[in-house]
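Try this one yourself first.
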């Protein structure tokens, strides 16, 4: 059941900003990072998601990313992603910021998506930074290289790396200027993404969290809904339209 206050606030909102995390893709079958069946329970992030690890063992990192790419290729966006597509045309201004690298928002039809942590569908040369969108795989055991000879790496943000400047600036601006903020399916422990709901709140936005569990956002959110985003978001859209 969606609280009436949420619908009333949303109906008058002019600028709506949404932050999504791995939880929104969970119902599509993309594993989350934390929690019972989370990736970081089975794999060690320090061996797979940082630059030094990549340079030490690029084949292992490539295998891991290709495993995740395969999962993503085989699944589809879910009703949570589609509800956000509908919201994009409902609100006068709508900003969608995601920590996800799976591209599912775009596949669902969202047009303006700010990707804070990159996209697993792209690769980037470690030497010249050239971006490649070719669907590459390991050639035998060899990691693909760029024309310049540099190794290609997934174009995602790894631990210890800076977020893409343009994306984080847009995200800060969208969080500062909104009057309604949704935090959806994120554990809100990875910064700077986790600061976005705080920034929105400090600037007077009405903050709504949708998550299966409490998170650090719960303590200051105006409304926290415990439920699956694929169920809750379509209910919100239905109540709005
Ligand atoms: P996490 O795996 O940390 O958190 C997923 C959150 O989604 C948890 O709080 C779950 O309770 C919630 N959740 C799971 N299923 C849900 C559902 N169906 N509906 C609603 N909520 C659900 O994922 P993120 O917060 O996205 O960074 O993680 C942030 C970053 O940490 C990732 O972008 C990645 C990771 O290390 C990098 O790779 C740089």
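Now uncover the answer:
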């Amino acid at each position: 059941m969606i609280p009436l206050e949420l619908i009333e606030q949303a109906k008058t909102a002019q600028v709506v900003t949404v932050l999504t995390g791995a939880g929104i893709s969970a119902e599509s079958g993309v594993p989350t990072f934390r929690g019972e069946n989370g990736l970081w329970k089975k794999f060690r992030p320090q061996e797979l998601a940082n630059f030094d690890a990549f340079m030490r063992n690029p084949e292992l990192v490539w295998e891991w990313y290709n495993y995740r790419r395969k999962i993503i290729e085989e699944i589809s966006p879910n009703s949570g992603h589609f509800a956000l597509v509908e919201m994009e045309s409902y609100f006068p201004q709508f900003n969608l910021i995601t920590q996800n690298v799976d591209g599912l928002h775009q596949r669902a039809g969202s047009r303006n998506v700010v990707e804070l942590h990159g996209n697993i569908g792209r690769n980037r040369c470690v030497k010249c930074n050239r971006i490649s969108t070719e669907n590459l795989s390991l050639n035998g055991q060899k990691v693909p290289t760029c024309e310049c000879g540099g190794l290609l790496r997934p174009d995602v943000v790894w631990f210890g790396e800076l977020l893409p400047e343009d994306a984080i600036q847009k995200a800060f601006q969208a969080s500062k200027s909104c009057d309604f903020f949704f935090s959806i399916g994120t554990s809100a422990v990875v910064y700077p993404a986790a600061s976005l709901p705080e920034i929105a709140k400090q600037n007077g936005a009405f903050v709504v969290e949708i998550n299966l569990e409490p998170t650090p956002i719960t303590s200051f959110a105006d409304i926290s809904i415990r439920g699956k985003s694929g169920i809750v978001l379509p209910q919100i859209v239905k109540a709005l339209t």
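Discussion: The pocket of 2'-O-acetyl adenosine-5-diphosphoribose is lined by residues 21-23, 26-27, 32-35, 38, 49, 99, 117, 157, 185-187, 190, 210-213, 215, 228-230 (CB under 6 Å). The radius of gyration is 18 Å.
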